[in-house]
RNA sequence: GGCCCGUUCGUCUAUCGGUUAGGACGUCAGGUUUUCAACCUGAAAAGAGGGGUUCGACUCCCCUACGGGCUGCCA
């Protein structure tokens, strides 16, 4: 079995869409799980709609998701001459022909066809006109598609798909200005790049029949096809702007960890038994084309969040810190000081168990990112009543002399509460306010251990005043 | 209009002719609890509709409905 080569071929007309990200992920997973190559090609032949800034945004999105590609991204536009060369070869072989029909003529035909509710498939009158009768006028090159019989294509996801050949039109290969059309460019590029598996959105399923004509004409072996269903919004409609966040970058900005995003996107429309939460290594080992479903899946943020929470909890502390730093940089927030990073690392165990996103984790990390004097937010301030301050002032001396380990601290606090016949819950609120200045934070024991005895005493003393 | 593809709990899905149709997210109820989160126990929740084939259909076939795609000198 030869090496697996997959590709992701976005057109730079916008940011990396969540659907595109998943298509890229499937290609990446399939190749990486088999020691193959994952290539990138930018389909920038439509000059008016292509923007290099979008190309960069797509690359950034893939990088964030951890999808690395082999070799430099290929610019489709740059390969224009090669595409034209193939069109001419097809012309020479009689598999294509020059069509001198003007766009106005074709449009007139289509309007009439629509009015009569007839087929809008254009049948060029130039298909069989000998070249000595050609006018000296602009022309396009069209493929000479079969009109009889039928074609069956095998798709790994969709199964055998059969199309009657009379549904095929003589699509344009080369425009009248000599530039290639997408349909030609993909086939030539996929062939030249050695792509063995084309995994793409099922909006291309019928296009596959048109593209197949070129493989046939050039006598190239066609790649294995896998047309995956698109992702829909929560309402079952095609994902669009009105669904809110649709770009991968939007999710990055909201602080979803890349690992959780990968897991969620992989599981969306693909399954491996009952496995829901899995690592990248498992995904690479398990991913296969036959686990892909045939119907479109809806995007569910709740499940995304759940998986993200699990991935944060399972993450390696140093790696998580690294991701947080990258998140801060990507969102333009002020960078952490070395002291803050160190503090975050010490607090990580207590933070990652209770956060679904990076901002959520950061919010809970406030106690270690801030420094004295601790400023209470409104909710925390409300907990620091006069009675609470008195309790804190009574407790503080008792903590001053104990050894600083979890059991001792816990015993000290329990004893203290018992002696005053109050519940620990009544003490926890004021302690959180004093230590973190927030009501949302890790357990008071975790915070005390992380910031240490001296700092704890200092913060409690501040709050007692 | 023509052609192609799809349809299992609210959502993601398992099942590949015989199961009390399983799991996960979410929801609800209860428990635990130190806020948030988590955790424990339990519950409600599905084969689009109609015909076939078969001893037996979620599973195979047909029709309908609904959803999506293609039908460009866009990609």
3D structure, described in words:
There is one protein chain. The protein is mainly alpha-helical. The protein contains 19 helices and twelve strands. The protein has helices at 18-32, 52-64, 80-92, 103-115, 182-192, 207-218, 248-253, 258-267, 280-286, 301-314, 317-330, 338-352, 358-364, 366-369, 378-383, 386-400, 406-419, 424-435, 444-464, and strands spanning 5-8, 37-42, 74-75, 96-99, 140-143, 150-155, 159-164, 172-174, 197-201, 224-228, 231-232, 297-298. The chain has a three-stranded parallel sheet, with helices on one face. The chain has a three-stranded antiparallel sheet with strand order 4-5-8. The protein has a two-stranded antiparallel ribbon with strand order 6-7. Helix 1 links the parallel strand 1 and strand 2 (37-42). Helix 12 packs across helix 19. The longest helix has 21 residues, at 444-464. The termini are far apart. The relative contact order is 0.09. The model has no long low-confidence stretch (mean pLDDT 93). The protein binds one RNA strand of 75 nucleotides through helix 4, strand 7, helix 5, helix 6 and strand 12.
